[in-house]
Amino acid sequence: MVPVSYYIVLSAALFAVGLVGVLVRRNVLVVLMAVELMINAANLNFIAFSNLHGNYTGFVLVLFVIGVEAAELAIALTVILAYYRHRETLDGDKMTLLKG
Amino acid sequence: MMGTALFFVFAAVTLAAAVLVITSRSVVYSALFLILSFLGVAGLFILQGAEFLGAVQILLYAGSIVVMFVFVVMMVNLKEPLVQQWTAFRSVGAYLLGGLMLVELFWIAGRARGWLSAPSSGIETGEGHVEMLGKVIFREHILPFELLSLVLLTAIFGLLVIGRRK
Fold first, then answer.
1. Prediction ipTM score
2. Which residues does chain B have within 8 Å of residue A68's beta carbon, measured at their own beta carbons?
């Protein structure tokens, strides 16, 4: 059995990759994919700690995360599509309508 | 030994595919590498005794979520690849911030090394993984489980409203 620290290190690296992706990419679709990577890193940690402590709560949490994330992603992609219909672009840097 | 070797294989696949997701110039390639990364994570789940979650990961992430991405890519017409210049100020800041995050997480993990390197007790699999999972969900987490269905229902209505053509 691989010690938990291996999984922690892997998940930290995966999270950092996702973070860089969110910050570097301008295409909002790829930014969403990078968010997925970060969520996956968190899920890995849940499973690893669940195994460490020998109970099922982390497993259940991962199931909930997957469910909520599917909903979130469907909404996000729909918003992106609606935005594209109005503005004809997927460039996150140009989405400045709210002056944020 | 076998488990350790498999861990390194899956970890390498997951990380390499993740890096390729954020560096590919084509969104379709990004989506395909995303599938690979999800498959690697599913392998890691199964390696840790979470067979059901591994299957869910493959079905939901590698199946439906990536299909949604590809559908959106199909519907929009991208002219330029929309990649930040490597030398741009924001890009350098992003890499610095990502590196800082990595160092920080490693530092935290290093501080907890004492109990992290302990062999994990593992979950008892006498009763079967899915049975235990179902029992825990329906005995201890029934309210969040029901609320999740409400979230999904809201999402369906929300995307019907948002996605409607005027």
1. 0.90
2. 148, 151
B11 within 8 A of B44, measured Cβ to Cβ: yes
Number of domains in chain B: 2
Own/partner long-range contacts of B4-9 (Cβ < 8 Å, ≥24 apart): B4/A2, B6/B43, B6/B47, B7/A2, B7/A6, B7/B44, B7/B47, B9/B43
Contacts of B127 in chain A (CB under 8 A): none
**C-beta neighbour count of B6 within 10 angstroms:** 15
Pick the residue of B29, B44, B83, B146 with the most A CBs within 10 A to test the interface with A by mutation.
B44
Which of B37, B68, B144 shows the shortest C-beta gap to A37?
Answer: B37
Predicted confidence (pLDDT) at residue B75 exceeds the cutoff of 60? yes
- The answer, for A46 touching chain B at a CB cutoff of 8 Å, is no
Same domain, B5 and B74: yes
In a domain, B38, yes or no: yes
Overall residue count recorded for chain B in this entry: 166
B112 has pLDDT over 80: no
- What are chain A's domains? 4-92 (1.10.287.3510)
Arithmetic mean of pLDDT, B14-40:
92
Place B16 in a pLDDT band, splitting at 50, 70 and 90.
Answer: very high
Which residue range(s) make up the domain with B30? 1-78
As given in the structure block, the two tokens for residue B46 are 């199964």
Provide, as residue numbers in chain B, all residues whose Cβ is less than 8 Å from the Cβ of A2.
3-4, 7, 47
Q: Is residue B152 part of a domain?
A: yes
Q: With respect to residue B62, please indicate whether it lies within any of the assigned structural domains.
A: yes
User: In the predicted model, is pLDDT for residue B136 greater than 80?
Assistant: yes
Are B2 and B73 contained in the same domain? yes
